[in-house]
């Protein structure tokens, strides 16, 4: 029995039976930054614009039901729980902006 690997044969076999690529190919319209690479390796999707870093920490307690819903939604959207909470807060604040007073 031989432990020799026939790399040419292996390469030919792979070429004939190349697995299909799952998901879409992303072709960014801007230069990729190191922060983008960090995001990609963290499993975050590449944004159209570089995402702003979150530097301010707020602490909030959730009910067990809210926690389960956050986890499920974050998993569905393939984003982290913190990113989902930031997204929800941004949507809430945008929808509930105070209207400027009439002069």
Automatic annotation (TrEMBL):
Residue ranges, annotated region (Disordered): 1-20
Biased composition (Acidic residues): 1-13
Coiled coil: none
InterPro entries: CopG
Residue stretches making up the Ribbon-helix-helix protein CopG domain: 60-94
Any GO BP annotation: regulation of DNA-templated transcription
Top-level taxon in the UniProt lineage: Bacteria
Segment forming the signal sequence: none
Name used for this protein in its record: Ribbon-helix-helix protein CopG domain-containing protein
Species per Swiss-Prot/TrEMBL record: Bifidobacterium bifidum
């Amino acid at each position: 029995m031989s432990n020799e690997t026939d790399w040419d044969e292996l390469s030919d076999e792979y070429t004939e039976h190349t697995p299909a690529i799952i998901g879409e190919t992303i072709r960014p319209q801007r230069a990729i930054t190191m922060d983008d690479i960090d995001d990609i390796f963290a499993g975050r999707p590449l944004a159209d614009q570089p995402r702003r870093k979150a530097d301010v920490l707020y602490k909030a307690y959730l009910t067990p039901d809210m926690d389960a819903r956050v986890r499920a939604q974050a998993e569905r959207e393939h984003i982290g729980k913190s990113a989902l909470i930031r997204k929800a807060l941004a949507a809430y604040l945008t929808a509930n902006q105070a209207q400027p007073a009439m002069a």
